[in-house]
Amino acid sequence: MMQSALTRELAPLDLKPPHLDILANLYRHAGLSQQELARKLLVGRSNISMTLPQMERRGLIERRGDSRDKRVLRLFLTAEGEALALRAMQIQTALIDRSLSRTPLEDCSAIGAQMERIIAALQMEDDGGAESG
What we know:
By secondary structure, the protein is mainly alpha-helical. It has 2 domains: about 1-100, Arc Repressor Mutant, subunit A (Orthogonal Bundle); about 105-133. It is built from 6 helices and 3 strands. The protein has helices spanning about 1-10, 15-30, 35-40, 45-55, 80-100, 105-130, and strands spanning about 30-35, 60-65, 75. It has a 3-stranded antiparallel sheet. It is globular, with a radius of gyration of 17 Å. The mean pLDDT is about 90. InterPro entries: Cro/C1-type_HTH, HTH_MarR-typ, Tscrpt_reg_MarR-type_CS, WH-like_DNA-bd_sf, WH_DNA-bd_sf. This is DNA-binding MarR family transcriptional regulator.
């Protein structure tokens, strides 16, 4: 339901939640490679490679060569992409605030702690899979 609500609220910006995920990650971690971005989003590189050209055509992101490794392209937000990322993150934050406003603080804290444990477990599994794969 949260995903549906976010989709509705991002529609006036002509964004979908996966676009927001990309924008938010590049806002926080400018210069990620496509592979690093896919890993952070827990999606395949093919998912990212289908979405990035659309965002590039819209003038939201740009790819720049890596100064140390010419085979790698780094992803950056344009000024327009950064402005859109900030607006979209505000929409997402407001939606979360509204959704949790009737939930007691201790319940919110418990939910947050559980989510952190899930993330840690997934990261450990991902790290372990990378070593053995």
